[in-house]
Design a protein that fits this description.
By secondary structure, the protein is α/β, with parallel strands linked by helices. It has one domain: TIM Barrel (Alpha-Beta Barrel), CATH 3.20.20. The chain is built from twelve helices and eight strands. It has an eight-stranded parallel β-barrel with strand order 1-2-3-4-5-6-7-8, surrounded by seven helices. Strand 4, helix 6 and strand 5 form a beta-alpha-beta unit. Helix 8 packs parallel to helix 9.
Amino acid sequence: MPRTMRTDRVTLRTLNDMRAKGERIVMLTAYDFPTAKLADEAGVDVILVGDSLGQVCLGYDDTTRVTLEEMLHHTKAVVRACPRALVVTDMPLGSYGVERARTVENALRLVKEGGADAVKLEGAAFATEVSAITAVGIPVVGHLGFTPQSIHLFGGFKVAGKVCAEADLLLENAVMLEEAGISLLVLECVPSALAREISRAVRIPVIGIGAGPDVSGQVLVFHDLLGFYDTSFRPRFLKRYDSLKERMIRAISSYVSEVRDGCFPGPEHCYDGDRSPRRVKRHSDKACLGGTNHTGPG
């Protein structure tokens, strides 16, 4: 077992202690039982049930079509697989920011029904919702920079905070969200220098994705890291640690060929038994259709 792997249950206190000690926090997305189990056993500290499941699991074009019910379904599966990692679930577009009471109700469902340890909201416009959710005892993770739920407003993928005015606003928003009560902050696609400045300005762990090394930890999408979703997706921040898509296609193609060629199953894949073949007596079509041999009443 690697020396850095944690075997005790990860909590928010654990993450704060890691930040204070300068230990890097590892976050990874997962969307179902087997992938979450692999991530948990590999030593990931925080598992994010991201609404990116809309693309990598459900085939949507982006995250905006994901529903609360879909997030609940996947969260339940992930939680069952994670005896150790902290589980954070995205609140999907439309589940917050409309009515404060409904926002709290939806967050409660993700925690009470889904089993999540915390929920994540995108953007800085929802500080009052953050306060309302934390008031009922639910930890909240903030998300600034490029926020995928706002992709139509951005007009596509965009690095945030490249100009001074935008960078100043992101810094202000990070402090504002911390004051509203977030326990963790995700920064996506922001310049490294700005991410470092934000990480120093707040007292909570900051997790980066495309935000450079000077933050408390990193997060990647499970399918991107392992290369078995869309291998043409190659943003600058992504390091691909394997290419499972090609390996999986080769394995499945071999199965297809062997079934069609009659090579599979072979004798070693079959079961033996003591039963001897016997002749099956069949009724004639005439008897089955109620012909002259019929002996029933009438």
